[in-house]
Every structure is written in C-alpha cells, then in structure tokens.
Amino acid sequence: MSETPAKQTTRRPDWAALAIAVILAVVAAVVVWSTARQGGAASYARIGPTTFPYVIAGAFFILAIWTAFEAWRGDFPERERQEISPILWIVGGLAAQMLLLKTAGFSIATGLLFAATARAFGRGPLWKTIPLGTVLAYIVWVIFARGLSLSLPTGPLEHLLF
C-alpha cells in the first residue's frame, strides 16, 4: 500500500495582517513620541504620569511584532468575504447623526442612527425603525437632559414637549 506524500500548501504572507502590524507599530511610536514631548513630569516618583503610556506603547509594540510574525508565517485563518453594505449603512447613520444633531436635535438624529444600524443588521423596515429609534432616543434624552441635568442637543421634538 503506497501513500502519496501529503500535499503541502504554503501560504503566502498575510498582507492585511502585516498592514495591521505596521499600524500597531505606528500607534506605539506615536504614543512614545507624544509621551516624551510632555514636559513637567514629576521626577520625585519612580512611577509617574508618563509610566502608563509607555506601558501601553510597549504592549502595542509587542502586539505589532507578534502580529507581523504570525502574518509572515501565514498562520492567520482565512477570512470570510466582507459585506460592505452593512458597513455603509452604519457609517451613513453615524454621518447623518453628526450632521443633524444641532438642527434636528438628539432624538431625531439618534433615531436615524438607530434605524440605519437596525437596517445594517437586517432588522425591520425603515418606516418602523425610525419612529421606534426616535422614541427610544427621546426617552434617553429625557433621562439625561431632564433627570440628570446634562446638556444634550435639543431640536424641534424636544422643544415641542419640554
């Protein structure tokens, strides 16, 4: 009985993971650079306000090396195909909320974000999720703006009822 040699599949380096490793290293370098530029740190203590950012930068740098090593070996599992439509719905909802917060108010802008996110996850039609999100956001606005006296953007809906 003869056995055929196992077919070796050599995976190429995972370029997306290598890009992530580079981004992690850049973040580590920016944290170190930003922390080093801060002056006036107390020198009387061994552990001062600059210690923790250096620890975080070290962790990012270790993760960058680890990610690059694993990416070069091709050890990351194959990724599923990405769906761009849900991402566009969420980003569009965030953009709509940011653009409408001052004019439409917290409730309406956040209701649109809620509806766009629900649509991204395949839940409910917009005609149902926009009013539901607006009502939920209004309840949140009442709790935070009236109950806790926090400043949230007001719009026509908030002015209508309060």
Automatic annotation (TrEMBL):
Keywords associated with the record: Membrane, Transmembrane, Transmembrane helix
Entry superkingdom: Bacteria
Entry's transmembrane regions: 15-35, 47-69, 89-114, 126-144
UniProt domain DUF1468: residue ranges: 19-153
Keyword Transmembrane helix: yes
Positions in coiled-coil regions: none
Protein's name in the database: Tripartite tricarboxylate transporter TctB family protein
Organism per entry: Mesorhizobium retamae
